[in-house]
Amino acid sequence: xxxYFLGTAGSxxxxxxxxxxxxxxxxxxxxxxxxxxxxQRQMIKRIKQSKIKRIFITHFHGDHxxxxxxLIMTMSLNDRKDPLEIYGPEGTIEFLSNLFxxxxxxxxxxxxxxxxxxxTLEFEGYxxxxxxxxxxxxxxxxxxxxxxxxxxxxTEKAKEIGLEGKMFSLLEEEGELEVSGRIIKLGDVTGxxxxxxxxxxxxxxxxxxxxxxxxxxxVLIHEATFLEDSERKETYHSTVKEACEAADAIxxxxxxxxxxxxxxxxxxxxxxxxxxxGNVAIAEDLMEVEI
Amino acid sequence: xxxYFLGTAGSxxxxxxxxxxxxxxxxxxxxxxxxxxxxQRQMIKRIKQSKIKRIFITHFHGDHxxxxxxLIMTMSLNDRKDPLEIYGPEGTIEFLSNLFxxxxxxxxxxxxxxxxxxxTLEFEGYxxxxxxxxxxxxxxxxxxxxxxxxxxxxTEKAKEIGLEGKMFSLLEEEGELEVSGRIIKLGDVTGxxxxxxxxxxxxxxxxxxxxxxxxxxxVLIHEATFLEDSERKETYHSTVKEACEAADAIxxxxxxxxxxxxxxxxxxxxxxxxxxxGNVAIAEDLMEVEI
Lengths: 291, 291
What we know:
Two copies of one chain form a homodimer.
Chain A: E1 2-7, E2 21-26, E3 29-33, H1 39-43, E4 52-56, H2 62-65, H3 68-77, E5 84-88, H4 92-100, E6 111-115, E7 119-123, E8 126-132, E9 140-146, H5 155-161, H6 167-174, E10 176-179, E11 182-185, E12 198-201, E13 219-223, H7 229-232, H8 240-250, E14 254-258, H9 266-276, E15 280-282, E16 287-290
Parallel strand pairs in A: 3-4, 4-5, 5-6, 12-13, 13-14, 14-15
Antiparallel strand pairs in A: 1-2, 1-16, 2-3, 7-8, 8-9, 9-12, 10-11
Helix pairs in contact in A: 8-9
């Protein structure tokens, strides 16, 4: 699977950074996290927007959702027929219905909109867990959890037991199977499985305790708006150090910082991050990360 | 004065073209015509958004207004204090109030929103005339009309008559003045005046008859969505040829085509336009035109 950082700015876009938007290409689908203004144009450079199946909005500050209506309209102009799923925090349904009444919008496909709190949604091959974060307005973080993969069949052992032909797929579907009067479990004839990939995205937030599902994330994408605690003032954002501490707390393999404030030089952020976490990168617009 | 073509796309943005947005820098102000998604980021390359005083929206199809909320928010984050004026067709007030209720928006300065039909607005040094066009939904075109300038003072003649000191500014303010019992008009002591610059913008429209104020425009900016009449089908847009005919009809000095459809090569549009109007250019993103 592959992550595309389509927008990595803080609240204001800059010459180098578009507002927040992260795409995850998993199998043949694309999942979007946030969709700031101009995201549809960034996509032209990296992904096919027709492949976007579901969009997760962390919260309704303008920089995180104002690319939605343009994207939705362009999908309609491109004759999309597949439904599009949009998930977000409390208020999403009212906000989007206001947004769709902000001009003349005719949408030629179905929109499925759902509000989340702490929820786990099961999809084909993965789940998404949403969890509340601390940003002053209803806001979510998300954990992408690829399904665990079973180990390969131990064909020798399977033959010994008498498995053959369609029995393999039956066993896979059911999890267990009666063979010559004996109950065989899938684990009896397969090797060691592989844990599915986990990607945690903080959204915009002050430091929070992430849910247990975030433990051992392969990637933590965390906002890092400030360098110094004193700059935060009344805002609900994290410092670079706090993002690193969050990565430590969940034992993330890799940390990618985003929501980058234009007031700092990239080198300053990098230096501060390296002081606190080893495997860390600063997101850049159009950056691709293979996982 | 200077025109900046910040976005020149048709309904969908492309790699080369952002959605519609035209900025006119006149004296120390900037006036915006349309504000498609991503316009605020285009501005970073050409104009200071803090200088934008008033924005004219032709109509409420997404490509023409979806850059407004992001721009308005960024102005607020930049501590704007000056009021911002927004003008648009029937429906503007309701559409914008829905738009502002599509998320958490706090705006730290005053917005002045006004709906126009066929109206003439007087500002310092220029007027804007709005006129209805034919686009299926309430839609406007706009004419920017710089005030006419008086000719220079003929100082010899003025001295002969007996004008001196503060009398010059008094005459200029009042238009006429009594000097030694004789009524002197401003025109008596000034040379030939200069007509103010006129710029007409069609917005999106099928061919319409422009108001008489458009006659002799220095620049006509006209949409040119199609090459062939047969491609238009049920849509309310113009062909390149029709845009050229409009320029002919008002006796425009110069024609600039915009709202460029990604399905054509630039060279095709150029060749077709040159067949029908001499002084014609195809707008490109970030193009600047000094007038």
